[in-house]
Each structure stands twice: as structure tokens, then as C-alpha cells.
Design goal:
- Helices cover 37% and strands 22% of the residues.
- By secondary structure, the chain is α/β, with parallel strands linked by helices.
- The chain folds into two domains: 2-49 and 343-400, Urease, subunit C, domain 1, CATH 2.30.40; 51-339, Alpha-Beta Barrel (TIM Barrel), CATH 3.20.20.
- Helix 11 crosses helix 12 (324-331) and helix 12 (324-331) crosses helix 13 (368-374).
């Protein structure tokens, strides 16, 4: 399958692009379509890297708007966990499909997911055509940690997801240090090392999590994970709001990545902003995420991109704390190799990219990159391409109406109206 894009702008130059087999084979001035190519006329549009959503719970689109103004733990205990106990694979499949439609519409080409029924999520991702790292969610606090149930759940989940392939990568997803026992965290670290699997875990999202960890284990959360062998270059830490400077130095030394979720953290009033400037000074790998639609409500990563830049400027009282080009790098995964963002479209690279309407009201004036960060929403995206396949063209995602209808049916089944 071959695709050609003609008349697009890249760094102010009009270029053409050709892809075959999911890879860009040519890009530059004078590149023209071949006779059998699917052709997109991109006149008036710019070609850009796609966004990478480094942390979400995709199927929680079904929970959007429920318990909207509750604190995190109350929201989990009273709204989320009771419903999650009744989830079926079809619920997760259609909730994830709905999330994929929203991400395709708003320019996300890859995401990192952690949710129940991971096999259903993997099927949804491949049917939608996006890329994702699907994490097997693991929890055992409250169970006897030595009875093997968590290990069985990990094995079953990995079997459901299957081997790593073009669009789907499996991972282990211990929920958090307060929901997974110490023996299980040690086992997860060993299993991930043996199979070269990523580890995706929430860390230091609230001040209470930090104080409890110090009281129970004598060290802060990142140090606790390091003691258990969990920190490493394949480890993704979601949130990291309450990390201190010594923990950031440790995370950098181990090569782990932190994904900040500013909008979800603001909504849940976790009390602090992720210390990005200190993380950058320590050369920590950093990405950007929405968290789930239950906490953020939106999966439009452009909104989180603006919020990320603005809260960092506000917190540091420095309008130059994060530049627009740097914020864009964070949102496209360029500052966290583990996130495996496609980067700037280039020959030999993956054919994952966006066509953005330069003549949209948000982007019609001033610096283009600044417009993407401070003015744009996902509505500026005209075309989304992943693996050389056009997932959205002219703002239209094929099959969207069916996905929305089926997701509503599953939400109604769960009593989420």
C-alpha cells in the first residue's frame, strides 16, 4: 500500500511525501506521486509529527463526567471501582474504540494505556489503526500477595495481548505502590527484565502517597521502586507530581521516564505541579499524557500541551520556563525515547504524521509552532496517518457514528448515562 502527500509545508518549504509499507520512502521538494499511490492534496496544510499520549486509561471514556468534582481516592472508591467490577470485554473494546476516535480526531498517533481487559483494548487499537503500548493492570493489595493471583493475572493479560507487533506492544502495569505489594513489585521487575517488557506505573501523584511510603518503607516512592529493582530504562512513571530533586536525579540515573498529566492533576487538585524545570536540569526523560477521560474528561492532547507550558511558566514565575518548540517536543515524545514517538517526518521513518490546517483561525497568524502550543486545539488537524494508513481525512473518521452508538450502549449497560 502506497500513499503520497503533495503540496504540504514543512518548515516553510513546500514538499511532497511518499510512503510504502508503513515507512516514509521520500520527502522533500519535488517529490511527486507515483501512478498507483493514494494521493492527498495537502495545499494550505502543514505536515507535522503526531502527538504521543504517554499515559491514559482509554476505555474510561465510558466514565466521562461521572464523579466530576470528587477527590481522587473518593472518586475511585465510590464511582470507579464499583463499576469496574462489572466490566466485560465488550465494554472495554467499545470504550477504547471511542477513545481512539477522539485521539485520531485530535492528532494522537500513539498512546500508552493501562486498563482492565487488555486483550479487548489491544483488539480495539488494531481495529482503529493507532499504535499503543497496552499494559496489563496489576493490583494485589487486599489479596494475599503470595497466593499467585497477581502473577496469574499478569500471564493471562500478556497472553490476551499477544506478542509485540506493528501497532501493539505489551507491558506490565502495576497500578501503584499502594495497590501492589512489595513481593509482587519485585516479581514484576524480574519478569519485565526477563521478557524485556516495559513497566507502566502511577507514582507520586498525591502528597499522601509520599507520606505513606515514607512511613511504611522509610524512603520516598522513587527510592522505594529503585530498592525493588523497578526503576530502569523501560519504566514509565505516570504523574510524578510530588517527586523531589533527589528522586529526579535517581530517575535520570536509571534512565526511566516520567509522563506529566497537568490537566488531570489540576482537576483533581493534587496540590502541586510536576517539577519540570528540575527534571530537565537532571536530564530526566519527560512525556505528556491526558490520563483517562474520567479524570481529564478530554483526550485532546493539544489542551494538555497548552496547560503543561502555562502551569510551568506560572509555577516558576518565568515566561521562558518552557518554550513552544520544547513543549512540542514533549508532546510528540521526542524527549522520552521510551515513548517511541515518530518524530519529525523523515525518509526511513515511520509514516505516522498529521496534516494541520495552516489557514485555520488559530494558525493563520504569527509563529506556527507557538500557534500549535498556545492557540490550537485538536480541531486544527485535518488528516491523521498512522503506519501509512489514512485514519482521518478532511476531519472525517470512518465508522465514527457506529463507535459512538456502541459505546453509549455499553455505558448504559453499566449504569453510566
Amino acid at each position: 500500500m502506497s500513499l503520497a502527500v503533495v503540496g504540504a509545508q514543512l518548515d516553510g518549504e513546500v514538499v511532497g511525501l511518499r510512503s510504502t509499507g508503513g515507512r516514509i520512502v521520500e520527502i522533500g521538494a519535488g517529490v511527486a506521486a507515483a501512478p498507483d499511490d493514494e494521493v492527498i492534496d495537502a495545499g494550505g496544510m502543514a505536515i507535522t509529527a503526531g502527538l504521543v499520549n504517554g499515559h491514559t486509561h482509554a476505555a474510561m471514556t465510558l466514565f466521562r463526567g461521572h464523579g466530576a468534582d470528587l477527590p481522587l481516592m473518593e472518586w475511585l472508591r465510590t464511582v470507579i471501582w464499583p463499576v469496574e467490577a462489572r466490566l466485560e470485554p465488550a465494554d472495554v473494546y467499545w470504550g477504547t474504540r471511542l477513545a481512539c476516535v477522539e485521539m485520531i480526531r485530535t492528532g494522537t498517533v500513539r498512546f500508552w494505556d493501562m486498563y482492565w481487559q487488555p486483550g479487548a483494548a489491544a483488539r480495539a487499537v488494531e481495529d482503529a489503526g493507532l499504535r499503543a503500548t497496552i499494559s496489563v493492570p496489576l493490583v494485589d493489595v487486599g489479596d494475599a500477595p503470595v497466593d499467585g493471583r497477581l502473577r496469574d493475572a499478569a500471564r493471562r493479560g500478556l497472553e490476551e495481548i499477544g506478542e509485540a507487533r506493528e501497532l501493539v506492544t505489551p507491558a506490565l502495569g502495576p497500578h501503584a505502590i499502594y495497590t501492589v505489594s512489595e513481593p509482587s513489585l519485585r516479581w514484576i521487575a524480574e519478569r519485565a527484565g526477563e521478557a524485556a517488557l516495559p513497566i507502566h506505573i502511577h507514582l507520586s501523584e498525591t502528597e499522601e502517597e509520599v507520606s505513606s511510603c515514607v512511613a511504611e518503607h522509610g524512603v520516598r516512592p522513587a527510592e522505594y521502586l529503585d530498592r525493588l529493582g523497578v526503576l530502569g530504562p523501560r519504566t514509565l512513571l505516570a504523574h510524578g507530581v510530588w517527586l523531589d530533586d533527589a528522586e529526579l536525579a535517581l530517575i535520570a540515573a536509571r534512565g526511566a521516564s516520567v509522563v506529566t498529566n497537568p490537566v488531570a492533576n489540576l482537576k483533581l487538585a493534587v496540590g502541586r505541579v510536576f517539577p519540570y524545570r528540575e527534571a530537565r536540569r537532571r536530564a530526566v526523560h519527560v512525556g505528556l499524557g491526558t490520563d483517562g477521560a474520567g479524570t481529564n474528561d478530554s483526550l485532546d492532547l493539544f489542551q494538555d500541551l497548552k496547560a503543561f507550558a502555562l502551569v510551568q511558566k506560572h509555577e516558576t514565575r518565568d515566561p521562558a520556563a518552557v518554550s513552544a518548540p520544547e513543549a512540542w517536543q514533549v508532546a510528540t515524545g521526542a524527549r522520552a525515547p521510551l515513548l517511541d514517538g515518530g518524530g519529525r517526518p523523515a525518509a526511513g521513518g515511520r509514516a505516522d504524521f498529521l496534516l494541520v490546517r495552516r489557514d485555520s483561525p488559530e494558525l493563520g497568524m504569527g509563529d506556527f509552532r507557538a500557534g500549535l502550543v498556545y492557540a490550537a486545539s485538536g480541531s486544527v488537524v485535518d488528516t491523521t496517518v498512522v503506519n501509512g494508513v489514512v485514519l482521518m481525512r478532511g476531519g472525517v473518521v470512518d465508522g465514527e457514528d457506529e463507535v459512538v452508538a456502541r459505546a453509549r450502549e455499553r455505558a448504559a449497560r453499566l449504569g453510566l448515562r
